[in-house]
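My hope is that you will study the record closing this message with an eye to the fold:
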Amino acid sequence: MSLFLRSVSRAALAVAIVCPAAAAHASDEPVTAVPDVVVTATATKRTTADAPASVTVVDRDALQRRPVQDLTDVLRDVPGVTVNGAGLTRRGISIRGMPSEHTLVLLDGRRVNAAANAIQHADFDLGWVPAEAIDRVEVVRGPISSLYGSEALGGVVNVITRSATDEWLGSLTAMGGLREDGRGGETYSIGAYAGGPLLQDRLGLSLFAESKGRGNTPQAANERLSDLEDRETLTGSATLSWTPDAAQRIDFTVLAGHDERYRDTATTATVPVYYRYSDSVERRQYALSHTGEWGWGETVIRAYRSSLDRENTVTAGQTASRPIGMQDDIVDGRATFDRLAGHRVSLGGEWRRETLQDPAASTSGDLDGQRYALFAQDEWSLTSTLSLTGGARFDHHEKYGWQTSPRLYAVWAPVEGLTLKAGGGRGFKSPSLKQLSPEFVTVAAAGRFTVYGNPDLRPEIGVSYEASAEYRHDGWMGRVGVFDNDIEDLIETRCTQFCGVRGREVRLYQNISQARITGLEAGAVAPLPAGFILSADYTYLDSQNRDTGAPLSERPEHSGHATLRWQPDDGRFLQLRGEYVGEQFMLSNSIQYPVDAYTLVSLEGGYRLDPKLWVRAGVQNLGDVQMAEESAYFSFAEPGRFYYLSFTASF
């Protein structure tokens, strides 16, 4: 637990900032109920049952029942979501078989700038929001570019944070974990949250801070190489909320994070050189927003800046990756009109400027691009049981002109408890600044090939349809749905010269693929006697590269999750979770190799020692499944069996 002990002093400083205010205004109610309301599917408040999309909500109670290092730990139990490799043992999120870069990550509805647009093997979007600060996570499966534009081609993950209430609330969670085999990989996190009024009914404050990390895990076959990289992260945020009157709220948020990574690796030469590869990442976001709730509807306007800077260092005389900086400046707004004869109409727009600082991207080292968008949406209640949601977003890109993203969705509840949904939409993803730059050039894969930008790239286009049926009654739930995604002009690198010649191979970003992904999702929840609850889901994927007829890589045909939870009261729980990932194909040097199916099982439990103190413990990966050791083609390493213990104190 040395990594944990080394980090306590640093975390204590961040925690000390948060805790005194909460302790000084302690509340007798440490827990607030989470309403069954989602906002991501329409940007307006809808219940999960009548939301015009396939939506899953991971609430705070579910988050607290497991150890969480980043969003992959939060989402890997969500139907239709699989974890895939981003390179360098890092992980990404795939929704319904779509590439991880087609998943848009939002923070309270604000874009998190996509690190993958500038940095290879980036997962920095997934780990800078502490679990202690999260109220819930909303996951929309399927394209929703009609609201959010580019990057929402596969789906949207919206992290909703906790906000200040009319009483001071606070919590502190400390967690530590150890691998059974003693090969490193110690895990820790210390997080704190506090929120409440500075001036009653006028000015509120929300604070959170977290320090977390995981130790380096050497490979079993060669301890000079890392199986999992070392990572240490420190994050913090402050939000001031001013309510000048009952109809208006103004929020100002400052969020910052520092991420340190390193891994031991080696060159691929005949005589390898062993060296340490380190990344240091700084992230910041500043946001100002105004929300108004008027007699005729609601308005929202926001202005925010998100930035990321990466510095890379290496040892043993190797060449470090270039420093990279990226920044997004965004202004967006929406007005929703509620009282229009059964119609709820939303009109809005967005202005966005992207900036990239990369010496390999252009001669000057700087690239920038601007775009703006308009959108309209009509939520039409035809009857008390039937609604139709239609809308479109019109994005203007400097190179491509106008891109239109329409969507039409119907929700029908013919009898109590039964909900039928069906709809379709079109989405797009524009190439990144570096992909479009004719001056972009970088050496990749430890010097094996060189990649060049391509100003003739076209946007990636996706068209999706889905239909589902869900029935709920007395705690029972059954759900089944089908979907179809057609994607054109996927952007990949393709060899154009000296193919296979190490050090001379030339690759160019090109639109080379068309793909089709069809599938089925099914799930059920069953309340059982004696406080037991059983939930399970299954996803079937039929993916195809329409250029070659081969299945797409890292898309398991079968996957699923199951949880058996015993929770006889609010003070105890015990759960057994299982995740099944079927056989899939991994890509290595342009060749697909099959990787066997595997199952991960975890056991978790918790007990409330008193009204303000929880203790939780568990064993992750009971079967000690380590696919990276069983197959050289597996794209990321699963941590082996490890044990964890955590405490949560509420104030």
Notes: Helices lie at 2-24, 60-64, 71-75, 145-148, 433-436, 627-630. Residues 1-35 have pLDDT under 50 and may be disordered. The domain at 2-650 is CATH 2.40.170.20 (Maltoporin; Chain A).
